[in-house]
Amino acid sequence: MERVKFGRTESLVSPMGVGTYYDFTWIAPAKILRIKKGAERKVDAIKAALDSGINFIDTAEIYETEPLVARAVKDMEREKLFIATKVWPIHFSYDGVIKSCNRSLKKLNMKYIDLYQLHFGSNPKKIKEALRAMEYLVDQGKIRHIGISNFDINQTKEAVSSLKKHELASTQMNFNVSHRNIEKDIIPYCKENGIAVLAYYPLAHGVLTEELPETKNVLKTIEKNHGKKTAPQIALNWFMSKYDFVFPIPRASNPDHVRENAGSMGWKMSQEEIEMLENSVKTLKGPTWSGDKT
Fold first, then answer.
1. How far is CA 282 from CA 112, 200, 211, 239, in A?
2. Average pLDDT over residues 252-274
3. Average pLDDT, stretch 162-191?
4. Domain boundaries of the chain, sorted by first residue
5. What is the average pLDDT score of the chain?
6. What angle in degrees, to the nearest 10, is found between the helix axes of 153-162 and 124-139?
7. What is the arithmetic mean of pLDDT over 29-56?
8. Structure pTM?
9. pLDDT band at 286 (very low <50, low <70, confident <90, very high)
10. Partners of 19 in the beta sheet?
11. Catalytic residue among 22, 63, 116, 243
12. What is the C-alpha to C-alpha distance for residues 240 and 243, in angstroms, rounded to an integer?
């Protein structure tokens, strides 16, 4: 399986990863009642990703899925994996971040986290304090890289300037071929500064898994040039064909879907095909494609 550098770091990851956010209907029962309905299927989905050559898994303390990741990777060689998790904003203090990291390590059953991310933007003072703790955690060997998630461009720049000893490795944002607002500012900034981008909702919350009339001709052209490819494979391949620093992380909840998504790797669209896909998506109307909900 192909491996690429994660931004300007020396870490090697698969061109796409998988996410483990299963929405509030999973989080609330798991957190409050300790009920984890469908846990086995979710573990199987993560294992399907690993079996397909994907080594990049994203989770978060708020998702209540860190233990599922631990179960899925139990028999894997740790150094071949790239595990990312996040700290929730209520823990954005020096001691709070360190305590959250230790809890996540325990739940993941790991000695270190590859990518530790601040989950949402907060006030500058809290962000600076949280990042100071993250730099300490790097020095302690408990995390390898520092990341952010859901930070706007100004918050991103503030995070970069707040780090004194280590560099910002990545940001994570809502990004897909139908929702491309971050191409105006965050994408150019990250490209210039060697910052990797994790794209969540890369399939627009399921909309891009459909073979729509507007994209029918694109699918035919790509099938002619690259063999049979499904709509989600094309939507995910768009990232890999257009960028070398953007990593889609579609949710791993169905093993069959995960295996299908893995077929997005190992080939690339031409510039003409990329433009055809983007132009076909522009013709779609309605709130589903506005980017407000994915």
1. 43, 20, 15, 17
2. 95
3. 96
4. 4-207+244-268
5. 91
6. 50
7. 91
8. 0.92
9. very low
10. 58, 251
11. 63
12. 5
Lookup result for tokens 């994660």:
6
Q: Are 195 and 187 in contact (CB under 8 A)?
A: no
Contact between 57 and 85 (Cβ < 8 Å): no
Catalytic status, residue 116: no
- Tally of residues, the chain: 294
SS (H, E, C) the chain: CCCEECCCCCCEECCCCEECCCCHHHHHHHHHHCCCCCHHHHHHHHHHHHHCCCCEEECCHHHCCHHHHHHHCCCCCHHHCEEEEEECHHHCCHHHHHHHHHHHHHHHCCCCEEEEEECCCCCHHHHHHHHHHHHHHHHCCCEEEEEEECCCHHHHHHHHHHCCCCCEEEEEEECECCECHHHHCHHHHHHHHCCEEEEECCCHHHHHHCCCHHHHHHHHHHHHHHCCCCHHHHHHHHHHHHCCCEEECCECCCHHHHHHHHCCCCCCCCHHHHHHHHHHHHCCCCHHHCCCCC
What class is the 4-207+244-268 domain? alpha beta
- Indicate the residue type of 155: Q
